[in-house]
Amino acid sequence: MVRGWDLRAGTTGDMVLDSARYAENIGLDGLIAGDHVTFHGFGYDGLITLTAVAAVTERIQLKTAVYLLPLRHPVPVALQVAQLSQLSQGRFVFGVGVGGEDPHEFTSSGVDPRHRGVRTNEALQIVRRLWTEDNVTFPGRHFDLHDVTLYPKPWDHVPIFIGGRSDFALRRAGRYGDGYTGIWQSVDRLRACREQIDEALVAAGREPGSVELGMQFWLAVGDDAAVARANLAAGMESTYQVPFDRFERYSPYGSVRQVAEFIAPYIEAGARHINLLPMQDSPEANIEAARAIQESLNDITGE
What we know:
The chain is built from 10 helices and 13 strands. The chain is of the alpha/beta class.
């Protein structure tokens, strides 16, 4: 996870870009950016963050995890993603979610939070068509398009990864996604996700098994597990405004090996991408923790 910049919070744009360069140089596979408009008062636009990162990197994959698509109109989003795809020469993965943990974020943006799922489903269909077709017409419940053409088109196929925990997210992944990223769920639940997504794939006339499974973890690394837990709890509670014990069973902390051993069963259960959100003391420490976990996972799984 690469953080957005905020001068008042002590994070400059140069710091973010330096950490992105470091992540690429140290050998990480990808960088992810979150996205909010005003989540309990704080915002960071994932597409803006990754556009800046794309300009200073060459190899590393870039992914939103997740972009709150229902808060936006899909036509300008389709253009922004197409330009980012071209700038990064095909390195961008569009991770999409519906959010909703802070309903005020939606009402502040003029969106009824009860409609976020339907808005997302319509928007996903629209952006896909705008990336590959001209003269798009879409008579939807929330978005009504007539004869819309959008250029530039993306560099190539933009993978869409659906994030979430609900059955709705699984069906959405089967209908519209190339990948699915789970969060705050057990290994057994991830195994069950495969079957539910495949059912949705078949219903949509798509090939079973064609959606890649993955997981996202908040975590903290440290020799003292109690200190690591405290750092992780502080980061998650300040973000979500709820007690850490609601997340603890799904959020690893401790030594690098302990964190890797927590994650490894998810890989054995079918996860093919792992997004890491370390709560360390600095952006550089986050990257180093992620790299150490990556190496430990490779050792455990033999990959």
